[in-house]
Amino acid sequence: MKKLLFILALISVTSFAQTARGVRIGYIDMEYILEKVPDYADALNQLEQKAQKWKQEIEVKRIEITKLKDALKTERVLLTKELIEEREEEIAISEQELLDYQEKRFGPKGDLIIQKSVLVKPIQDQIFTIVQDVAEQRKYDFIFDKSSDLTMLFAAQKYDISDFVVRKLSASQKREEMSKKQFKALEAKEALEESLEENPAFTERQKILDEKKAARAKLIEERKLANEKKKADAAEKRKKMIEERDAKKNGTVIENNSSEENKNNSDEVKKNTKAIEKENTTTKPTAAEIRQKAIDDRNKKLEDRKKALDEKKKKIAEDKEAAKKAKEQKTETENKN
């Protein structure tokens, strides 16, 4: 509305000049002109490919967040309050990162708008230069852009100079064919650099997660080996104790050697036990280990409960059987009497 009033004001200012000569007014359709420019169509195609790639990345991240939510929903009953809060915080961080990435790519000041503006600006500058030349050559007083947010209620076709601007622009681009090739080479170079440094925020986060997973797997493997060694040492100790006992029964004296070996084994077991305890105290358990421990404890409780139930059922059956036998014996005794 303000722009329309501005136009009316300009026309009113020049109304006095109309008595001397007619005011010449023309207009262009910027969207129509850009559609006729091959470079602009190629640039838009490249930008659309980038946008599709960004959309795919957003969809992949959204699927990952959905999986995290489903996993938390499934395992919630098995997790402690602290673990639930940790998982919810991780999901919230991922969702915020996704929103930030969407804003970065498709927001009002995002990469899509910025790159489109960068692609359009050189062509628009050429068009504006040509329009100024045309205005000077044909003595136009005003030239408006029909595709802008300026409201044009009516515009006669004879005042449309868009096709003339397109012809002038094509001729100008033919003269600059060499610079066009250089521009394409520069675009290819930028595309290659972008593919090499694709999505740095997600790449860095994925790297951190991979490092955490590797450290967790290494810690689990080390604890597994330590437990296996501890079991092997305990089995060896029991074996030696059995051999020593059998030797004493048979009258063979190996007490000194066996006691010395037992002492060495005991020292080694104590040393390994201290090392494991030190590792357990210095290494903070991860979320996966705490979750696995909770699952193991729950399974153990279920097994103990099942075992107690089986023993109770067995005792009841035995009591029933004993009562039945006692009743039969009582019946036999009464019959004899």
Name a few traits of the molecule:
two-stranded parallel sheet; 337 residues; 2 strands
| Cα radius of gyration in angstroms | 43 Å
Class by SSE composition: mainly alpha
Low-confidence parts, pLDDT < 50 over ≥5 residues? 12-20, 253-258
Distance, first to last CA:
123 Å
- What is the helix fraction of residues, given as a range? over 70%
**Would you count the extended β strands for me?**
2
What best-fitting shape do the alpha-carbon axes yield? elongated
Q: What proportion of the residues form beta strands (DSSP E)? A: under 5%
Number of domains: 3
The major pleated sheet works out as: 2 strands, parallel
Q: SSE order, as H and E?
A: HHEHHHHEHHHHH
Query: What integer is the average pLDDT?
Result: 76
Q: What count of helical segments does DSSP give?
A: 11
* Spatial sequence of strands, sheet with the most strands: 1-2
Give a structural overview.
The protein is 82% helix and 2% strand. By secondary structure, it is an all-alpha fold. It has three domains: 21-198, no CATH class; 202-284; 294-337. A two-stranded parallel sheet has the order 1-2. Helix 4 (38-75) runs antiparallel to helix 6 and helix 9 (200-250) runs antiparallel to helix 10. The longest helix is centred in the last third of the chain and has 51 residues, at 200-250. The protein is elongated and about 145 Å long.
